[in-house]
Every structure is written in structure tokens, then in C-alpha cells.
């Protein structure tokens, strides 16, 4: 299972390319602007995800993606009650008025992109995909911030 996150908020220029790219790809942005950095679905564990647990019509389903299990909205089953938008702790679920359905990040499961479109669009190279194992390794590392800064610097100097 993988998740998306801004690895170094200080290096995010706030250009919102990730959000506009997502909106262009799916009609509705599945990421959200804040006063500081953009925020993305945290890809909660399928058994615990508040959006899935609250849905009265089992419209939020678990599917197998290349990166492990991913939660998607089955538009056919969505009755647009919007409970998931209230239950999500970061309010990241969007509503697609045309499709009459809730919308959430799928890490671009439905596209041919190898990496999510937002990650590709980020010119600041601050957006990355992590697995749970990666995150655990980072969590165990006391020098997290410094190491990440160095890694990003190296990545930027090579790109
Ligand atoms: S809006 Fe759709 S996906 Fe969200 S809780 Fe209601 S039925 Fe489920
Ligand atoms: S939409 Fe919200 S509650 Fe659902 S998996 Fe993403 S962060 Fe978790």
C-alpha cells in the first residue's frame, strides 16, 4: 500500500501544478489547496478508512493496484449522500457534480501513468509516493528532515 505526500513543505513553491494537473486529468481535483501546502488523500488502511466505513451504500471499494490495495469510489453505487466528505479527517473527498458521484485519489490507478500525474507535474520535486515500509523506515530515522533535504538536493542536482 502506498501514499502520497509533500516531503519538504519549505521547498513547495505553491504553484499548484499538482492540483491543476489532477483536475485536468479527472475533471475534479482530488487534491486540495490550503494556505500553505497542497494536501492529498492519506490512503488510510482499507479496514479503518473513515470514508469507507461511513459509506451507507458500500460505494467505496478496495481494489488491487500495482501499489497494493487502493480505495476507489464506485460511481454506480454512490448515492451522493456526502457522508464520506464529512468523515474524511482531512476533507479530501471531492464531489463530481457531472458524474453525480464522490471522487477520491486513486494514485492514478485508472490511467496509464506509471507515477501519479501530480507527482510528475511537481516542478519543485517535493511530491513523492511512499510505501508503508518506506514510511516506517523514515519514522525510525531520527535524522529524517536532514536526510530528506540532502536526498532532495541530490535528486534536484541530477534532474
Ligand atoms: S457520497 Fe457516495 S461514496 Fe460518499 S458516503 Fe455517500 S454514497 Fe458513499
Ligand atoms: S479519503 Fe480521507 S478517509 Fe478516505 S482514505 Fe483518503 S484520507 Fe482516508
Automatic annotation (TrEMBL):
Keywords: 4Fe-4S, Iron, Iron-sulfur, Metal-binding. Coiled coil: none annotated. It holds the Pfam family Fer4_11. GO terms for molecular function: 4 iron, 4 sulfur cluster binding; metal ion binding; oxidoreductase activity. Residues 2-31, 69-98 form the 4Fe-4S ferredoxin-type domain. InterPro entries: 4Fe4S_Fe-S-bd, 4Fe4S_Fe_S_CS, ET_IronSulfur_Cluster-Binding. This is Putative dimethyl sulfoxide reductase iron-sulfur subunit B. It comes from Candidatus Methanobinarius endosymbioticus.
Amino acid at each position: 500500500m502506498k501514499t502520497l505526500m509533500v516531503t519538504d513543505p519549505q521547498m513547495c513553491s505553491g504553484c499548484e501544478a499538482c492540483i491543476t494537473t489532477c483536475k485536468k486529468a479527472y475533471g475534479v481535483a482530488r487534491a486540495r489547496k490550503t494556505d500553505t501546502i497542497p494536501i492529498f488523500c492519506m490512503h488510510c488502511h482499507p479496514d479503518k478508512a473513515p470514508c469507507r466505513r461511513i459509506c451507507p451504500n458500500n460505494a467505496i471499494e478496495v481494489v488491487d493496484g500495482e501499489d497494493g490495495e487502493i480505495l476507489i469510489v464506485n460511481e454506480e453505487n454512490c448515492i451522493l449522500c456526502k457522508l464520506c466528505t464529512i468523515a474524511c479527517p482531512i476533507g479530501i473527498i471531492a464531489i463530481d457534480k457531472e458524474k453525480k458521484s464522490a471522487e477520491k485519489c486513486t494514485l492514478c490507478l485508472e490511467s496509464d501513468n506509471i507515477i501519479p500525474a501530480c507527482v510528475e507535474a511537481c516542478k519543485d520535486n517535493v511530491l513523492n509516493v511512499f510505501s508503508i515500509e518506506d514510511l516506517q523506515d523514515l519514522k525510525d530515522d531520527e535524522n529524517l528532515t536532514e536526510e530528506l533535504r540532502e536526498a532532495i538536493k541530490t535528486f534536484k542536482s541530477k534532474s
